[in-house]
Amino acid sequence: MFSSSYLDRNILCVDALDVNALPMGRKTRLLVGLVHDGLGRALRIPVIAVRGTRPGPVFGITAALHGNELNGIPVVHRLVDSINPETLRGTLVAVPVLNIPGLVRHEREFRDSTDLNHIMPGVPDGNESQVYAHRLTSRIVGSFNYLADLHTASFGRINTLYVRADLDEPTTARMAKLQRPAIILHNPPRDHTLRGWASAEGAPAITVEIGDPGVFQPKKVRRTIAGLRALLSQMKMLPRRSQPKPPPPPLLCETSRWIYTDRGGLLRVLPELGEQIEEQALIAQQFDIFGDLVREYRAPYAGVIIGKSVDPVSPTGARIVHLGRLAKPGRFPNAEAAG
Ligand SMILES: [Zn+2]
User: Fold this and answer.
1) Is the dihedral of CA 134, 154, 45, 233 positive or negative?
2) Integer distance in angstroms from the first to the last C-alpha of the chain?
3) For residue 198, how far is its CA from the centre of ligand 1 (angstroms)?
4) From the CA of 88, how far away is ligand 1's center (Å)?
5) Measured in whole angstroms, how far is the alpha carbon of residue 216 from the centre of its chain?
6) Across the strands, what pairs with 26?
7) Could you tell me which of 153, 151, 149 has the C-alpha nearest to residue 172?
8) Domain 256-325 has CATH 1.10.645.10
9) pLDDT (0 to 100) of residue 195
10) What architecture is domain 5-234?
11) How far is the CA of 247 from the centre of ligand 1 (A)?
12) What's residue 338's pLDDT?
């Protein structure tokens, strides 16, 4: 028999997330209707909401806004599993996938090739991706008081576990610190990202970049969950329990940029993720198709490798490394870990 999959289970179909209508002390699975496809079939976003027994903030965790960025999905599942609603203060809203068309097509973008994280909060009467973005923000994300948006690197690249946050803003700086990633990058949110929109709406937001695209990476997933639990405990949403020994304090970066190739060829990137390198350190070699070395690339400044390319086929203008420039001690007091 053909099963209708999860739709035949006890899941609430709604037009918008209404946190105050959720039962207290319980986990609720919802499908929030957003749009319809060309056959008139509803496209609904799965949401897992855990409403505690005591009033408190709404903390949202979203994943897969880029459809090929998957590590956030097990983070959401396992974090929700670990929470007892009886002891939760406030509400945790977990959205395992924001970009459903992208996820099913293994693609970063929405189905009209638009990057949803460049058009937030969308347009109510706009085109396909604009209206989808608008309904994501107005029907779901708009009810959050805080946001952690989970991403990974893009195809052809790999990332450390790092957080992008505005470190001049005390709340987001503390959120980033408690998340305890390998690296925190000071990055005031640009317009039209989900993080930028949420912040502008008064919901402090961080982006957590969890490793590589298209895979589940258990170690990075575990570390992200531990960070989110520490953050929720510090906000007194979760009871304090003995935390596992925290990982080493993150490196703080004041700025970063990608270093690109200036000619085409096969690229071999040398430094490891998280490696600290000196100015003028050799970062990559490029070979032509006969195997002859044609170019060497050196670091324009000293820094730390936040991400790097793993795709050898590199035209002119291909990414090499994402190089963070370390902040001077004392530059971001709210993000500096005590130890
Ligand atoms: Zn992303």
Assistant:
1) negative
2) 57
3) 16
4) 29
5) 14
6) 51
7) 149
8) no
9) 98
10) 3-Layer(aba) Sandwich (3.40)
11) 24
12) 59
Residue ranges per structural domain of the chain: 5-234, 256-325
Token pair 């189905």: residue: 111
Distance 64 CA to ligand 1 centre (A): 7
- Residue 252 has which token pair? 């703080």
Q: What is the pLDDT of residue 245?
A: 78
Q: What is the pLDDT of residue 206?
A: 98
128: its two tokens: 């396909």
For CA atoms 84, 85, 91, 92, give the dihedral sign. positive
State the distance from the centre of ligand 1 to the C-alpha of 336, rounded, in angstroms.
Answer: 25
- Measured CA to CA, the distance from residue 81 to residue 214 in angstroms comes to 23
3-state DSSP of 84-102: CHHHCEEEEEEECCCCHHH
Distance between CA atoms of 63 and 43, rounded to whole angstroms?
A: 17
| Averages of pLDDT over each 10 residues, the chain, 339 residues | 60 95 96 96 97 97 98 98 97 98 97 97 98 98 98 96 97 95 94 95 98 96 96 94 79 98 98 98 98 98 98 97 97 82
Distance CA 269, CA 6 (A): 44
Distance from the alpha carbon of residue 3 to the mean position of ligand 1, in angstroms: 33
CA of 150 relative to ligand 1 center, distance in Å: 7
Give the per-residue pLDDT at 339: 47
Q: Are 148 and 174 in contact (CB under 8 A)?
A: no
Residue 96: both structure tokens together: 């395992």
Which residue, among 110, 188, 100, has the nearest Cα to 140 in the 3D structure?
100
List CB contacts of 113: < 8 A, sequence separation 6 or more: none
Structure tokens at 305: 């490798």
289 alpha carbon – ligand 1 mean position (Å): 32
Contact 19, 51 (CB under 8 A): yes
| Cα 213 to middle of ligand 1, angstroms | 9
| Tokens at 64, concatenated | 């897969």
- Predicted TM-score of the model (pTM): 0.95
Residue 25 CA to ligand 1 center (angstroms) comes to 32
Of 278, 142, 127, nearest in space to 200 by CA: 142
Alpha-carbon distance 79 to 247, whole Å?
A: 18
Instruction: Give the residues across from 18 on adjacent strands.
Output: none
